[in-house]
TrEMBL record:
This is MBL fold metallo-hydrolase. InterPro entries: MBL_Glyoxalase_II (IPR051453), Metallo-B-lactamas (IPR001279), RibonucZ/Hydroxyglut_hydro (IPR036866). SMART domains: Lactamase_B. PANTHER family: CONSERVED PROTEIN, HYDROXYACYLGLUTATHIONE HYDROLASE GLOC. CDD domains: metallo-hydrolase-like_MBL-fold (cd06262). Gene3D superfamilies: Ribonuclease Z/Hydroxyacylglutathione hydrolase-like. It comes from the Bacteria. It comes from Streptomyces spirodelae. Residues 32-197 form the Metallo-beta-lactamase domain.
Length: 218
């Protein structure tokens, strides 16, 4: 079956097979969080994005090969409920945005700034720092050399809008600006978006609505 990005809690992972990278998406926990396991096809090395909940499901997905790294997209608790258990079981290095690390109870081994790189085997991901949902939210960009970019956005970008800024007009303005300049301004329409909750989208599907989002204020 082709990859759809549609998953549900308790259901199987959906796997997006690229030339150099395999991306497995699974839904976990009461807030229907997405977690993503990235596997370098050349080396077998694996990286997990958001150990959100249900450590048993995540460890089963990871399998016997383990993971070398786990990246937490931001400090909100629904994105790190299983982090301690997953790190204890795998010995993985922990990554998070520098300005959110203090809000994550598991120590961050590698704090990330805008433009930093994270490697999984022979594959390189670039961190983009986006302010507004939290002070230190990060997304990860994989610029597939044989195709289009792939973008893991945490809770900063979803189908239909940017992430929740909890009624703050200042935070909303900052998040929209960062999303426009660092994501829409630098990546093509074909960029596949993997959010922290719910269905996937593309930048091309969302780009026509940027002005609408600004006008409505959320």
């Amino acid at each position: 079956m082709p990859y759809s990005g549609t998953v549900q809690v308790g259901g199987p992972a959906d796997v997006h097979e690229l030339r150099d990278l395999m991306i497995s998406k699974v839904a976990v926990g009461p807030m229907d969080n997405n977690a993503y396991l990235l596997r370098c096809r050349a080396t077998g090395e694996q990286l997990l994005i958001d150990a959100a909940n249900d450590a048993g499901t995540l460890l089963e997905l990871i399998g016997d090969d383990g993971i070398t790294s786990v990246v937490t997209t931001h400090r909100h608790g629904d994105h790190w409920q299983a982090l301690e258990e997953v790190v204890r079981a795998t010995g993985a290095r922990t990554y998070a945005g520098r300005h959110d690390a203090e809000g994550i109870p598991v120590p961050t081994d590698v704090p990330l700034d805008d433009g930093d790189t994270v490697r999984v085997g022979g594959v390189e991901l670039t961190a983009r720092h986006l302010v507004g949902h939290t002070p230190g939210s990060i997304c990860l960009v994989y610029d597939d050399p044989s195709g289009h970019p792939h973008l893991f956005t945490g809770d900063c970008l979803f189908p239909g809008g940017v992430g929740n800024t909890f009624g703050s007009a200042e935070n909303f303005a900052r998040l929209v600006e960062d999303v426009e300049t660092k994501l829409f301004g630098q990546l093509p329409d074909e960029t596949w978006v993997y959010p922290g909750h719910g269905a996937d989208t593309t930048l091309g599907a969302e780009r026509p609505h940027l002005a609408e989002w600004r006008e409505r204020g959320w």
